[in-house]
Amino acid sequence: MGRKKKKASKPWCWYCNREFDDEKILVQHQKAKHFKCHICHKKLYTGPGLSIHCMQVHKETVDKVPNSLPNRSNIEIEIFGMDGIPAEDVREHERQKNGGKSDSDDDEPAAKKKVEIPLSAPPPMMMPPNMMPPMMGQFAPMGMMTNMPPMAPMPPFLGPGGIPMMPPHMLPPRPLFPAMATTSAAAVNPAIVPQKPTFPAYSNATISAPPTTNNPSATGNSAPPEGSKLPPSVPTGNATGITSKIMHPPEDLSLEELRARKPKYQQKLTSSNNHQQRISTSGSMMQNHNAAVSSSSSMTIPTSSSTSSAAAAAQAAAFSKAQEVSAYHRYRNHSQYNY
Amino acid sequence: MFGQQALGGTTAAPSTNRMNDFEVTMPPDDSVSALEFSPSTISQNFLIAGSWDSSVRCWEVEQTGKTVPKSMKTMGGPVLDVCWSDDGTKVYMASCDKQVKMWDLASDQVVQVAAHDAPVKTCHWIKGSNYSCLMTGSWDKTLKFWDTRTPNPLMAITLPERCYCADVDYPMAVVGTANRGLIVYSLENTPTEFKRQDSPLKYQHRTISIFRDKKKAPTGYALGSIEGRVAIQYVNPVNPKDNFTFKCHRTTGTAGYQDIYAVNDIAFHPVHGTLVTVGSDGTFSFWDKDARTKLKSSETMDQSITKCAFNSTGQIFAYAVGYDWSKGHEYFNPGKKPQIFLRSCYDELKPRIA
């Protein structure tokens, strides 16, 4: 239980008390979670920025910073990363980090604690009972999360910084990580998937890894069933329940293959091909070819002489073949490429 | 039904140049299927476009944004891919006619250099440390390597399925196939299969592009599928969480119905390492894969964006607007002409520093 941070210098988000390894990630987090316009999903840079954007662009008032703790929802305060955090809050955070108080305690000044606890009470329902209150700060926002943005929440969010926040019995996956790093993404899946039910699907906490990394790995894992339903499945429902339509023919053929079948292109093929083959039998093309052979072989001699490997030998063999110009012409004119 | 546009049939159509970019003069007559800028070995910028009209066109792009048509070649069928040789003197053109031809720009001559048993979907020039060759991928389920002077391939590799997309950045090559196949090759010494990977995506692979690490060595790839999704994959991920997928090219249609469009092309910025995706929905988006953020998304074009490319210095972003067949031939409107646009993009693709 007694998770003690060795150093208190990790950047943290004033709005939700989350810690990050890197201030850059913190800024990304704030833009994505707290400064994103709920109407057009534009990411602003600060709370006031968001407020002004919504006012000017959408004529809407935003009075609270989205996904923030109840006592940290002030949209007037200009906070960017770690800049602009009220000094007292910094001190308070520092104090907690240093384990001045029992770890089961507040992220907030005592006076505000009362407000916070009832409000963040609902999330703990899905948390294991031995969850530590400091996690609330993390979990509080996730209920607010609606659709996934086009770019899903990013793994950096869930870096090591997030892992220690897991209750002890969730820790087992951790030792797996070094091992997984060497294996393919698919290997992660079994480890992560079983945990998933414990958490809401798109939580932004530690486990929000699945939405991003799962996509690739899930595909890999369930490839056979997926593959079988592949061809005809044009309309699909996706995770968010929105019906969607893939604007692509249902056949498992590329657009180019379908297009190339069209008489328009087939005709071109047959007619012009015969034509060209004929032309190419006549002298001009042969001469060109000869010219090309001589010029290009002289051009590449340096390359082959500079090499000593098998490739050089192969090239040498290829050269000798290239001398058989007449053979080539027979090939070109009589090979299977008749239409 | 009663939109002003529908009624005003005689008024000039609204500009299809939604982003106010430079339009390339004399574009192909049919959709652009391949788009490539000349390599850094030549000082000027040349743009090559292959098209479903079987043509391959070459323009010189001037600093002013002006494009000067230089030359054009015709293949025996729709062109599916083009690539440059490393020295910028030649262009290789892969076609539905099952051939690949080499276009020597200096002499303006064309010779066949490769052949498959089915249309050739991809071609890439490999500039190795001890060899150079052309890699071609075809719907005949083979990947072949050509010396370009001999009728027989130096090497042929059987693929599990038809080749749909490929990319090469020596010493790495990746191939995406039908049925969601994904293979990484090592090109060192001789091309060898490095690793077959389970697809990170659930739908048909459509485009793939290799990206580099900070030291400019190829380290992973972005794979786009028809289901508006891109997977960023590292060949040897330090942490499995390095790999991720993101959604793109989707629009919310009526009544909460979401329209999901194919990712038609992906390109990485040669300097910043950020990327662009273009989609069937007619938009392009700039992304920073490291910050995992979208940098910019474009207005919606009149038609799909079929291909895109950066020039070697990363100053110019070219994208081709045209029909990509995603709604079948019924929706092919010959009245809508394909277009290619050039955009000054260097600053827009800079990663944002927080």
TrEMBL record, chain A:
The gene is ZN207. It comes from Ceratitis capitata (Mediterranean fruit fly). Residues 91-116 have a biased composition (Basic and acidic residues). Residues 91-125, 203-250, 264-323 are annotated as: Disordered. GO terms for molecular function: DNA binding; zinc ion binding. InterPro entries: Znf_BED, Znf_C2H2_type. Residues 6-65 form the BED-type domain. Keywords: Metal-binding, Nucleus, Zinc, Zinc-finger. One of its GO terms (cellular component) is nucleus. The lineage of its organism: Eukaryota, Metazoa, Ecdysozoa, Arthropoda, Hexapoda. This is Zinc finger protein 207. Residues 291-322 have a biased composition (Low complexity). Residues 203-222, 267-290 have a biased composition (Polar residues). It is found in: Nucleus.
Automatic annotation (TrEMBL), chain B:
It is found in: Cytoplasm; Nucleus. WD repeats lie at residues 25-62, 72-113, 113-156, 263-297. Keywords: Cell cycle, Cell division, Cytoplasm, Mitosis, Nucleus, Repeat, Transport, WD repeat. One of its GO terms (cellular component) is cytoplasm. One of its GO terms (biological process) is cell division. Pfam families: WD40 (PF00400). Residues 1-22 are annotated as: Disordered. It comes from the Eukaryota. Belongs to the WD repeat rae1 family. This is (Mediterranean fruit fly) hypothetical protein. The lineage of its organism: Eukaryota, Metazoa, Ecdysozoa, Arthropoda, Hexapoda.
